[in-house]
Structure formats: C-alpha cells, structure tokens
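Re-run with default settings, no changes from the original entry. Doing this only to confirm the output is reproducible before filing.
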Amino acid sequence: MAKAVVILSGGLDSTTCMGIAQDEGYELFPITFDYGQRHRRELECAQQVARHYGVTKHPIIPVDFLRQIGGSALTDEEISVPQSGLSHEIPVTYVPGRNLLFLSMAASYAEVLGAEAIYIGVNALDYSGYPDCRPEFIEGVQHVLRIGTKAGVEGHAIQIETPLLHWTKSQIIRRGTELQVPYELTTSCYLGEELACGECDSCRLRLKGFAEAGREDPIPYRRR
C-alpha cells in the first residue's frame, strides 16, 4: 500500500485530509508539530484523531523555537488573538515560516518512510489571509522537493497534496461528513479552552462553514 504523510494539527481541515488520504487508498502516517502554540488542546485532539484512524506511528515533533521567534498571536502571549471579525489583511495569527517549516520536516519524514505524498490542509478560499496557504506557495515548495531531495533528483519526487485548496469551508465539511471524519474530536479555536470561543477568526470560519453546509458543529462553544 502506498504511504502518505499527513500534517495533522488536530483541526478540521487537517483531519479532513486524513479522511481523504485514507479514501484515496493511502496508509496514513500523520505528523504533528508542537510549535510553541499558546495552548495544548490541538495536540491532544491530533492524538485522538490519530487513534481514531488506527495509525501505527504518529510522531509529535517539537519545534517550539517558533515561540522564541514570536511575531504571532499564536506563539506570543503578549499579542492578543483578534475577536472582532475577519478582515482582508494578513492577521496577527499568521505564524512566520510555519508551513514552510512543516512541509520541510514532513518531506524528511516522507523520504525516510518511502512515502509518495504529503497531505496538508491549506485553503485559499475560506481562510484567514495567510500567505503560506496560497497555490503559489505550494508550487514553490513542490519545486524545491523536486530539486532538493533524493527522491526528487531520482525522478520520483514526493507530491504535495492539497485537496482542500480551492474548496469553501462548507464544501470541506460536506466531503468530510461523507467520509465520516470525526469532527467531534477536532478543535479550531485559537484560544484552546474547553469551550471554543466562537469569536476568533478560526471559530467564525468554522461556524460559517457548518451553517452553510446545513450541519451542526459537534463541538461545544461558549458563544455560537
């Protein structure tokens, strides 16, 4: 069976990627990154999702030096998580270099495993304006994997799979529901409390997606 590395955050999008990769016939090898985020809840959710899919290996890689670098509301406690609604500017929840780092390390893992693909849940439609969720970014990293890895120069470069790239959040949720993705095990809230806040950008996008998909979000909220 072909192998796929799935960058699993414990959130809605990455968990949907788990379901899609499984449906496409891959043996799943999720990888999760502890990047010094302001809460541990998403790491716990990632572990629960991995157990749900019965994976044999699920490394959680410490890259918490991103907290020392700072510059993001997700890694710096002195920067407040915005709760005033979505804007068209790159938000303070953008973590500089995060997806570049994640894809680089996932590629290392994929080479060791002999995996054919890396799944990442980036989205260029219903997203928060992150530059490292755009098609141009993925194309650039794919080029690097072709010329900068052993697999690439030998003619079988690891493919970056972005099945959610051009889907709305409601389309993602509909497809995940068809695949019986365990959304009740996921988290999206930037604050990481027992009850999702319902007000941060990520909660707003998630709730909007479930509403447009005509489905009830199975996680509890402080405010919907």
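The mean pLDDT is 94. The longest strand covers residues 27-34.
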